[in-house]
Design a protein that fits this description.
Length: 112
């Protein structure tokens, strides 16, 4: 009888621990996306977006190697966007450990 109580307590503790699995870390930030892609090298030579993250004041534009879900980039326009960054729990070996998703298009301005 005592064994059954110990076993039930262990199972209950295990189930309680599983119900509190951590949520992926999520962050929302505002970016400016340049009107032209730039040559960059990831796994192979490619064209990257140039972004400036507004959470880092006075930062220079940096290469962005990944994709932004729900964002349809058109060259010739400068964008201000809100982007949600979510940490991927078990990323594929050849994929990013962060998922990016467009939250809001703040502006789209034609540039020459």
């Amino acid at each position: 009888m005592r064994r059954n109580k110990i076993l039930c307590a262990a199972i209950a503790a295990l189930l309680a621990a599983c119900s509190h699995l951590s949520k992926p870390a999520t962050n929302v930030s505002t970016w400016t996306v340049a009107p032209k892609r730039a040559d960059c090298v990831g796994v192979a030579p490619m064209k990257c977006l140039l972004i400036r993250d507004h959470t880092q004041p006075n930062s220079e534009p940096t290469f962005f190697y990944s994709n932004i879900e729900d964002f349809d980039y058109v060259e010739g326009f400068e964008y201000r966007i809100e982007v949600e960054s979510t940490t991927v729990a078990n990323p594929p070996a050849d994929g990013s450990s962060i998922r990016y998703r467009l939250v809001k298009l703040l502006s789209k301005t034609a540039k020459n």
